């Protein structure tokens, strides 16, 4: 949980550019480029805005739109390079605005439609409501895990939609796979377990996780569990 409103001025004062990866924030947490004023901000759609793989969006501050150099050099990032007409290399200047930063396969149009549907659904429900709902589910998980020996970040340090479990003695071998066999899907991350509910999860999923966890972890049966 990085306070970008404090970080951004320090970055600018050092003469550096600020690139923000909001992969795990956009859709659930408030993201406002007017407040933080990043130079670049990027996110894919497959994480939290219910979109497909292979589609990502890049915000480019106006101060970079006419002078930034794209990492990927493509024909359509230039003003006039096309095989349909002669001369082929008619104008090698970069395209106006942020279009110079477009990916090579920007014309994969089906993913744009898929991404639009997901983001429109999320916008209709509202970021604040989604954040509140997912924070409630992770709070239920945290409460249910009290007394089981796992360590959790303090509530003030946690994102509302991601819970990371630390196992002081190391995570039990095969635990993630065993949970999956019981229909509970979580992710191993560097010896920790990441639980990241989304809008398609509910209280029954929390209960399913806690039941499976109790069953698979010796000593996890505890009156401190939520239930």
TrEMBL record:
Domain Aminotransferase class V as annotated: residue spans: 3-209
Key words of the record: Aminotransferase, Pyridoxal phosphate, Transferase
InterPro entries given in the database record: Aminotrans_V_dom (IPR000192), PyrdxlP-dep_Trfase (IPR015424), PyrdxlP-dep_Trfase_major (IPR015421), PyrdxlP-dep_Trfase_small (IPR015422)
The keyword Transferase is annotated on this UniProt entry: yes
Stored Pfam families: Aminotran_5
Taxonomy, superkingdom: Bacteria
Regions annotated as coiled coil: none
Record flagged with keyword Transferase: yes
GO molecular function list: transaminase activity
Designated name of the protein: Aminotransferase class V-fold PLP-dependent enzyme
